[in-house]
User: Which sequence fits this backbone?
């Protein structure tokens, strides 16, 4: 299985690139969003890949993140959704947009993608709604893994006689994906189901993109509170 390729772009086409890896050219199909984010011809790039094997065809699909790759895999598991439709959805919404739409049950947002009808959009939301929390949490764990361990704190030494203390740097703020994943975990521990918790966190994050874990939890709890 080919899971990742690193090389230089030989040429770009409407829906794929030729990736030159050590003198071997691979045709890698990507979503419109991914293609627009790639550098120009001759530039180096690294893509996560998914190899689709059929009786008469081998195709490689490329993604800039593991979360995008995972959504592609899940979308293709839905009846009636092939690689072309999956890439159209990811190109229109992006990985975060797909997760938000499915968590909120917003099939109309999925239907915006080219080639996706109402019944297909509704089937996607229905089939994947319980899997959305896991992929959303995956985004946080991947971000943390790629960032690596916290660097050793750098303490600026100053004249103690003047200040009476050493100045410490401000702690690094957690990433947005990590905050959402932690909020999901907290709501699950409180007894909320994965689908309703994911929907509430997604709605809270959409309303306030800069909210941290505590803010997301408070907003999600308000959304989950019984109405009336």
Assistant:
């Amino acid at each position: 299985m080919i899971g990742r390729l690193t090389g230089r772009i030989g040429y770009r086409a409407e829906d794929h690139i030729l990736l030159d890896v050590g003198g071997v050219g691979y045709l890698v199909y990507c979503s419109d969003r991914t293609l627009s984010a790639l550098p120009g011809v001759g530039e180096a790039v690294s893509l996560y890949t998914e190899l689709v094997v059929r009786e008469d065809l081998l195709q490689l699909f490329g993604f800039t993140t593991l979360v995008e790759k995972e959504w592609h895999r899940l979308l293709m598991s839905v009846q009636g959704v092939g690689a072309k439709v999956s890439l159209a959805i990811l190109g229109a919404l992006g990985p975060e947009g797909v997760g938000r739409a499915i968590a909120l049950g917003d099939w109309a947002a999925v239907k915006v993608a080219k080639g996706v009808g109402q019944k297909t959009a509704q089937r996607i939301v229905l089939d994947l709604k319980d899997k959305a929390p896991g992929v959303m949490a995956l985004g946080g764990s991947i971000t943390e893994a790629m960032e690596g361990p916290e660097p050793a704190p750098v303490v600026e030494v100053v004249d103690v006689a003047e200040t009476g203390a050493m100045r410490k740097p401000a702690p690094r703020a957690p990433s947005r994906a990590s905050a959402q994943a932690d909020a999901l975990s907290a709501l699950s521990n409180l007894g909320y189901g994965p689908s309703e918790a994911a929907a509430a966190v997604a709605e809270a994050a959409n309303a306030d993109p800069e909210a941290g874990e505590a803010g997301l939890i408070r907003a999600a709890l308000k959304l989950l509170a019984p109405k009336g």
Summary: Confidence is low (pLDDT under 50) at residues 140-173. Residues 66-129 form a domain with the DNA polymerase; domain 1 fold (CATH 1.10.150.20).
